[in-house]
Amino acid sequence: MKKLFCLLLALTLSVSLFVSCGSGTSIAIGALRLDNQVENLFKFTDAVAYNETLVYTDKDGAPMFTAEYYYEVAEDIYSTYNLIETIGDYTLYAYEGSVYTETPEGMTAVLLLSGSYLDFVNTYFVADFLLDGETHIQRSSETKEDVIIAQYETVLTPQQQARVSELGVMENDKIVSEYAVRGSIIESIDYFVERDGALTPLAKRAFRVSNEKEDRFGAVKALSSEKVSVDFIFVDGENQGRHFEVPKGVYVGMEIGTRDYAFFYDTECTKPYAFDDAPIVENLTLYVTEK
User: Which of 83, 200, 267, 289 gets the highest tally of CB atoms within 10 A of its CB?
Assistant: First the structure.
């Protein structure tokens, strides 16, 4: 119900996102950010694909860490969304109900033991960005070639302040965010720390919204059509099993959430299983205990 209320609120406010004022254009940034959430773009516009690039920078603006996220509407309505997360040489694919990771060592099928595919995908939609506070105070705005550049001072909660300390942000520093907005779409956000009146770059996020999907899941589609089974037997009280099928030739890993499972090849639970032992080429049964 809370999520439905937020969606209706976004639609109501989106008609008045921009208000002209003497110092430039005043933006209802809360409503704009809500309208630009991936789920809302997919549900209420013609968009079917969304791309985000995140770069953390040093004090001179040089990249220190880069991540890319790609989202699209799934063909299978029960899968809802597909996504790709890329960090360095690590890539995660969530595609049409299945999850894989790719590294230079090969492709790993990630079997979801702690929840559903939808639960897994939704974790990417609910997370707040580290540098986004609950309140934004607009400082200035200007329009350049149909793009509104608006700068805000972000008010962080004590909990958020503690989190950004990892980036070298001190207690009395201010976070300043600069939005580039074209029409009703946020194209980029630049984040700065303000100390003694000087702005130092922290991070940049760039966004691209499209009504056409990109061909980004070739590595998953190229996996073998031949399947092998993976069965889990829980030996500590749960007295149940789980069955999965994966493409032949991939490694097999597990997503276990907060559970402290251990996996073994044998019923006596003396031979530990490791996902990188070898790619799976035949049916596999694993025995599961909880520490």
Answer: 83
C-beta of residue 99 within 8 angstroms of C-beta of residue 110: yes
Task: State whether the Cα torsion 212-215-220-223 is positive or negative.
Answer: positive
Distance between CA 148 and CA 139 in Å, rounded?
13
Half-sphere exposure of 242 (CA within 13 A, CB side): 16
d(C-alpha 175, C-alpha 96), whole Å: 38
pTM as predicted: 0.87
What does each C-alpha distance from 9 to 117, 132, 226 come to in angstroms? 28, 20, 47
Going by the DSSP 8-state scheme, the letter that residue 272 receives in this structure is B
Strand 284-290 and strand 227-234: the pairing is parallel
Dihedral sign for Cα 149, 151, 157, 161, please.
positive
* Residue 159, token pair as written in the block: 């909990």
pLDDT digits 0-9 by tens, 75-119: 998 899 999 999 999 999 999 999 999 999 999 999 999 999 999
